[in-house]
Amino acid sequence: MTISQFFAILRARWLTALVVLLLVVGGTAAASYYWPKKYSATASVVIDAKPDPVTAMIYPGMAAPGFLATQVDVIQSERVALRVVRNLKLADNPQVVAQWREEAQGQGTVEGWLAGSFSQNMDVKPSRESNVISISYKAADPRFAAVLANAFVQAYIDTTLDMRVDPAKQYSAFFDGRAKEAREALEKAQSRLSAFQRDKGIIASDERLDVENARLNELSSQLVALQAVSAESGSRQAQAVNSADRMQEVLNNPLISGLKADLSRQEARLQEMNARLGEAHPQVIELKANIAEMRSRLAEETKRVTGSVTVNNTINRSRETQLRASLDAQRAKLLQMKAVRDEGAVLMRDIESAQRAYDTVVARLNQTSLESQANQSNVNFLTQATPPLQPSSPKLLLNVLLSVGVGTFLALLAAFARELLDRRVRSLEDAATAVGLPVIGIMPRPSARRLAGGKRMPLMQQRVLGQLPGPKPRRA
């Protein structure tokens, strides 16, 4: 279809198109005027991003891209709608119950029926670049719309608080049980350590171990010193056996020195008397007896002096043996104490581990306990809904403008539909299409003007038909 055909049909069927357009526009205007009015009340909330007062941390999940979308789904959930019904106590209204029985025929619950009805008239729109969410409710009564919008906001705030507090209460009960178990484990570990210290007689293991270490070091030093003394006394005893007369004790002994001096004088006198009187003389014999007795006394005295060295060496050996035994006993005692200390250290580490576990559980218990007692949510009222003065629907001007567009389309459609039912030749294209032959000429209208005053004919028509004479003017 060409443009000329389109306008030809429109000129021919303009009345039909006009009637359809007027019917659509008029019907829409009348319906919009008499349609029941709806009022839309809007309340808004803001989701606060400040740190949690309990944990001192930013609320988790707020940085997620779908956080606001999640909050919109929460507002539109059945849980929030049921919370609205419970807060307004609409299920206790006899008229509401009667209406539910009439419409739902007793199926389901009153709260569920009201929640579904409220959700259909509620609209939620999140902000694109902020944490503000607008909640609108549409109803025939402006005051009812404002009350329901505010009720949905309050129910959403209460629901977010419940969603935070309820898990905290469950965690608090869980950590309370774990805290009791951790405390029992700590008490058992402390009891084991106390029993161990009581059985081993340990008061202060580290201090006693230091004392015993000092005693071991002292015994070791004494043993080294006594070994040196014992070695010296042993060498002196050997000297006393081999060359007792050259010992310092013998040489420094005044009695032995006096006996040696007397012996030397008696031996000198014996030589003199022996040379003068002879060996058989009684004085010589008596003098020899005196010298023998003196030598015996010298030997006894030397033996007595060297015997003290032997006794001293024996004492030193005995002391060394005793000190070595004490050192070995102290070393064994110290090793035993170290083993006891290691065992006690294991028990002490068990106590420390139980203490850390108990402290961690108690800290989490305190935190969850505070969270379970929280009464403030991170969602706050931004604006409260007020009863609107103007209805939000129907919008007469907008509906009329839309009906003009729709009516124009329907008018054109009706005109073309009527044209299809009663098709006529209205242009050259229609004639060529109808007979299936090309157009070779056009007969001008009787009232067509000539070239001087009228519209000029196409050049092809002039060539084919030439200039046809127009109608002759009537004579008066």
Architecture overview:
Helix content is 70%, strand content 6%. The two termini are 47 Å apart. It has a 4-stranded antiparallel sheet with strand order 2-3-1-4. It contains 14 helices and 4 strands. Helix 4 packs across helix 6, helix 4 packs across helix 7 and helix 7 runs antiparallel to helix 11 (282-372). It is mainly alpha-helical. The protein has helices at residues 3-12, 14-34, 67-75, 78-88, 94-104, 110-120, 142-200, 205-242, 248-252, 254-277, 282-372, 396-421, 428-435, 459-465; strands spanning 39-47, 122-126, 132-139, 379-383.
Number of helices: 14
Structural class: mainly alpha
Radius of gyration: 65 Å
The largest sheet, given as strand count, sense and whether it forms a barrel, is: 4 strands, antiparallel
Strand content: 5-15%
Shape descriptor = rod-shaped
Could you give the distance between the termini?
47 Å
Number of strands: 4
Show the helix and strand layout.
Blueprint: H1 3-12, H2 14-34, E1 39-47, H3 67-75, H4 78-88, H5 94-104, H6 110-120, E2 122-126, E3 132-139, H7 142-200, H8 205-242, H9 248-252, H10 254-277, H11 282-372, E4 379-383, H12 396-421, H13 428-435, H14 459-465
Antiparallel strand pairs: 1-3, 1-4, 2-3
